[in-house]
Design a protein that fits this description.
alpha+beta
Length: 235
Amino acid sequence: MLSFFRIQNYRSILDMKVDFSYAEKRAPNKHKDLTKIPFLEINEENRFVSALAIYGANASGKTNIMQAFLDYKTLIRKSKIKGFYSPNKLNTKYNTAIFEIEFFIKKDKYRHFIEYDNTEIKKENLYKNNKIIYEIDNIANKNDFKNILAAEYDNNRMTSILNVECSEQKENNYIQKKVFLSVIYKQYGGLNSDIANAYKEIVNLFVSASNNFVENALEKCNSANDADLLEKTAN
Protein backbone atom coordinates (compact mmCIF):
# COMPACT_ATOMS: atom_id res chain seq x y z
CA MET A 1 0.00 0.00 0.00
CA LEU A 2 1.60 3.23 -1.16
CA SER A 3 2.01 6.02 1.42
CA PHE A 4 4.02 8.63 -0.49
CA PHE A 5 6.43 9.09 -3.38
CA ARG A 6 8.95 11.92 -3.33
CA ILE A 7 10.58 13.32 -6.46
CA GLN A 8 13.46 15.80 -6.50
CA ASN A 9 15.23 17.32 -9.51
CA TYR A 10 13.47 15.29 -12.18
CA ARG A 11 12.54 16.94 -15.49
CA SER A 12 10.30 19.91 -14.65
CA ILE A 13 9.89 18.80 -11.03
CA LEU A 14 12.18 20.56 -8.58
CA ASP A 15 10.94 18.96 -5.36
CA MET A 16 7.55 17.44 -4.63
CA LYS A 17 5.91 14.76 -2.54
CA VAL A 18 2.99 12.81 -3.97
CA ASP A 19 1.14 11.97 -0.76
CA PHE A 20 -1.53 9.27 -0.70
CA SER A 21 -2.56 9.99 2.88
CA TYR A 22 -6.26 10.33 3.57
CA ALA A 23 -6.29 14.02 4.49
CA GLU A 24 -9.48 14.16 6.54
CA LYS A 25 -8.86 14.02 10.27
CA ARG A 26 -11.95 11.96 10.89
CA ALA A 27 -13.55 9.13 8.99
CA PRO A 28 -17.09 9.75 7.72
CA ASN A 29 -19.85 8.82 10.13
CA LYS A 30 -20.82 5.15 9.83
CA HIS A 31 -18.09 4.65 7.23
CA LYS A 32 -17.90 0.95 8.05
CA ASP A 33 -21.47 0.56 6.82
CA LEU A 34 -20.78 2.19 3.45
CA THR A 35 -20.74 -0.04 0.37
CA LYS A 36 -17.50 1.65 -0.73
CA ILE A 37 -14.93 2.50 1.93
CA PRO A 38 -13.48 5.99 1.23
CA PHE A 39 -9.94 4.97 2.18
CA LEU A 40 -7.51 2.09 2.60
CA GLU A 41 -6.64 1.53 6.22
CA ILE A 42 -3.63 0.16 8.08
CA ASN A 43 -4.85 1.59 11.37
CA GLU A 44 -6.56 4.78 12.50
CA GLU A 45 -3.31 6.71 12.08
CA ASN A 46 -2.51 5.37 8.61
CA ARG A 47 -5.30 5.75 6.09
CA PHE A 48 -4.67 6.23 2.37
CA VAL A 49 -6.67 7.11 -0.70
CA SER A 50 -6.95 4.39 -3.33
CA ALA A 51 -6.69 6.81 -6.25
CA LEU A 52 -5.23 10.26 -6.76
CA ALA A 53 -6.35 12.82 -9.35
CA ILE A 54 -3.71 15.19 -10.70
CA TYR A 55 -5.02 18.13 -12.68
CA GLY A 56 -3.59 21.29 -14.13
CA ALA A 57 -2.90 23.30 -17.26
CA ASN A 58 -1.23 21.90 -20.34
CA ALA A 59 2.58 21.62 -20.02
CA SER A 60 2.36 22.04 -16.22
CA GLY A 61 4.23 18.79 -15.55
CA LYS A 62 1.48 16.24 -14.97
CA THR A 63 3.04 13.72 -17.33
CA ASN A 64 6.39 14.06 -15.58
CA ILE A 65 4.84 12.90 -12.31
CA MET A 66 3.56 9.73 -13.95
CA GLN A 67 6.84 9.23 -15.77
CA ALA A 68 8.76 9.58 -12.50
CA PHE A 69 6.77 6.68 -11.03
CA LEU A 70 7.60 4.55 -14.04
CA ASP A 71 11.26 5.55 -14.19
CA TYR A 72 11.76 4.73 -10.52
CA LYS A 73 10.19 1.31 -10.94
CA THR A 74 12.26 0.60 -14.06
CA LEU A 75 15.41 1.85 -12.31
CA ILE A 76 14.84 -0.64 -9.49
CA ARG A 77 14.02 -3.47 -11.87
CA LYS A 78 17.01 -2.88 -14.17
CA SER A 79 19.26 -1.84 -11.26
CA LYS A 80 21.54 0.42 -13.38
CA ILE A 81 21.30 4.21 -13.11
CA LYS A 82 22.58 4.77 -16.66
CA GLY A 83 20.02 6.72 -18.65
CA PHE A 84 17.80 7.60 -15.69
CA TYR A 85 19.24 10.98 -14.75
CA SER A 86 16.92 13.68 -16.13
CA PRO A 87 17.56 16.82 -14.05
CA ASN A 88 15.60 20.05 -14.07
CA LYS A 89 17.46 22.21 -16.58
CA LEU A 90 15.88 25.51 -15.58
CA ASN A 91 16.94 25.43 -11.95
CA THR A 92 20.42 24.44 -10.79
CA LYS A 93 19.60 24.30 -7.08
CA TYR A 94 20.27 20.54 -7.00
CA ASN A 95 23.02 18.56 -8.70
CA THR A 96 21.54 15.16 -7.87
CA ALA A 97 18.14 13.51 -8.28
CA ILE A 98 16.18 11.82 -5.50
CA PHE A 99 13.46 9.19 -5.49
CA GLU A 100 11.99 8.26 -2.12
CA ILE A 101 9.07 5.92 -1.55
CA GLU A 102 7.17 4.81 1.53
CA PHE A 103 4.75 1.90 1.48
CA PHE A 104 3.17 -0.69 3.73
CA ILE A 105 3.28 -4.46 3.48
CA LYS A 106 0.48 -5.53 5.78
CA LYS A 107 1.26 -3.46 8.89
CA ASP A 108 4.99 -3.02 8.28
CA LYS A 109 6.15 0.34 6.94
CA TYR A 110 9.03 0.38 4.43
CA ARG A 111 10.92 3.35 3.02
CA HIS A 112 13.47 3.25 0.20
CA PHE A 113 15.62 6.26 -0.68
CA ILE A 114 18.04 6.73 -3.56
CA GLU A 115 20.05 9.80 -4.53
CA TYR A 116 22.11 9.76 -7.71
CA ASP A 117 23.46 11.77 -10.61
CA ASN A 118 24.59 10.93 -14.13
CA THR A 119 27.61 8.97 -12.94
CA GLU A 120 26.95 7.37 -9.57
CA ILE A 121 24.60 6.61 -6.71
CA LYS A 122 25.40 9.00 -3.89
CA LYS A 123 23.16 7.55 -1.18
CA GLU A 124 20.78 4.63 -0.84
CA ASN A 125 18.95 3.23 2.15
CA LEU A 126 16.08 0.98 3.13
CA TYR A 127 14.14 1.25 6.38
CA LYS A 128 11.49 -0.96 7.95
CA ASN A 129 9.33 0.54 10.70
CA ASN A 130 11.83 3.42 11.00
CA LYS A 131 14.75 1.04 11.62
CA ILE A 132 17.70 0.70 9.24
CA ILE A 133 17.84 -2.41 7.10
CA TYR A 134 20.85 -1.00 5.27
CA GLU A 135 22.26 2.46 4.70
CA ILE A 136 24.83 3.46 2.09
CA ASP A 137 26.43 6.90 2.03
CA ASN A 138 29.04 7.14 -0.69
CA ILE A 139 29.60 10.85 -0.02
CA ALA A 140 30.73 10.26 3.56
CA ASN A 141 32.06 6.79 2.69
CA LYS A 142 29.98 5.35 5.52
CA ASN A 143 27.82 2.25 5.26
CA ASP A 144 25.60 0.32 7.67
CA PHE A 145 24.77 -3.31 6.88
CA LYS A 146 24.36 -4.65 10.40
CA ASN A 147 20.70 -5.60 10.03
CA ILE A 148 21.24 -7.80 6.98
CA LEU A 149 24.38 -9.59 8.14
CA ALA A 150 24.47 -13.37 8.38
CA ALA A 151 27.02 -15.98 9.37
CA GLU A 152 28.70 -16.07 5.96
CA TYR A 153 27.89 -12.46 5.10
CA ASP A 154 29.72 -10.26 7.56
CA ASN A 155 30.32 -6.54 7.10
CA ASN A 156 33.42 -7.15 4.96
CA ARG A 157 31.47 -9.47 2.64
CA MET A 158 28.65 -6.96 2.25
CA THR A 159 31.13 -4.17 1.53
CA SER A 160 32.74 -6.41 -1.07
CA ILE A 161 29.35 -7.01 -2.74
CA LEU A 162 28.77 -3.26 -2.85
CA ASN A 163 32.22 -2.57 -4.30
CA VAL A 164 32.50 -5.48 -6.72
CA GLU A 165 28.93 -6.13 -7.87
CA CYS A 166 27.37 -2.69 -7.58
CA SER A 167 30.31 -0.44 -8.38
CA GLU A 168 33.12 0.37 -10.76
CA GLN A 169 36.61 1.05 -9.51
CA LYS A 170 38.21 4.34 -10.47
CA GLU A 171 41.73 4.71 -9.12
CA ASN A 172 41.32 4.08 -5.38
CA ASN A 173 37.59 4.81 -5.29
CA TYR A 174 34.51 2.71 -5.96
CA ILE A 175 31.70 4.39 -7.90
CA GLN A 176 28.31 2.80 -7.21
CA LYS A 177 26.48 2.26 -10.49
CA LYS A 178 23.83 -0.29 -9.53
CA VAL A 179 20.99 -0.22 -7.02
CA PHE A 180 22.02 -2.26 -3.98
CA LEU A 181 18.44 -3.34 -3.32
CA SER A 182 18.18 -4.86 -6.79
CA VAL A 183 21.55 -6.60 -6.73
CA ILE A 184 20.93 -8.22 -3.35
CA TYR A 185 17.46 -9.41 -4.37
CA LYS A 186 18.58 -10.80 -7.74
CA GLN A 187 21.88 -12.36 -6.66
CA TYR A 188 21.25 -13.15 -2.99
CA GLY A 189 17.48 -13.50 -2.82
CA GLY A 190 17.47 -15.63 0.32
CA LEU A 191 19.79 -13.40 2.32
CA ASN A 192 17.18 -11.03 3.73
CA SER A 193 13.40 -11.34 3.52
CA ASP A 194 12.84 -7.60 4.03
CA ILE A 195 14.93 -6.74 0.98
CA ALA A 196 13.11 -9.37 -1.07
CA ASN A 197 9.71 -8.12 0.10
CA ALA A 198 10.60 -4.48 -0.59
CA TYR A 199 11.90 -5.20 -4.09
CA LYS A 200 8.83 -7.23 -5.10
CA GLU A 201 6.46 -4.65 -3.66
CA ILE A 202 8.12 -1.75 -5.48
CA VAL A 203 8.11 -3.39 -8.90
CA ASN A 204 4.46 -4.39 -8.44
CA LEU A 205 3.17 -1.13 -6.94
CA PHE A 206 2.76 0.66 -10.24
CA VAL A 207 1.08 -0.36 -13.45
CA SER A 208 3.78 -1.65 -15.75
CA ALA A 209 5.17 0.64 -18.43
CA SER A 210 4.71 -2.26 -20.85
CA ASN A 211 0.97 -1.74 -20.45
CA ASN A 212 1.32 1.73 -21.98
CA PHE A 213 0.10 3.28 -18.75
CA VAL A 214 1.26 6.80 -19.54
CA GLU A 215 0.00 6.74 -23.11
CA ASN A 216 -3.41 5.34 -22.15
CA ALA A 217 -3.78 7.76 -19.25
CA LEU A 218 -2.94 10.74 -21.42
CA GLU A 219 -5.34 9.63 -24.11
CA LYS A 220 -8.15 9.47 -21.55
CA CYS A 221 -7.14 12.83 -20.11
CA ASN A 222 -7.13 14.47 -23.51
CA SER A 223 -10.62 13.17 -24.18
CA ALA A 224 -11.83 14.42 -20.80
CA ASN A 225 -9.86 17.65 -21.25
CA ASP A 226 -10.05 18.53 -17.61
CA ALA A 227 -7.99 16.12 -15.47
CA ASP A 228 -5.25 13.53 -15.35
CA LEU A 229 -5.90 10.39 -13.39
CA LEU A 230 -3.02 8.65 -11.62
CA GLU A 231 -4.04 5.31 -10.19
CA LYS A 232 -1.98 3.16 -7.92
CA THR A 233 -2.29 -0.55 -7.40
CA ALA A 234 -3.41 -1.33 -3.87
CA ASN A 235 -2.59 -4.69 -2.38
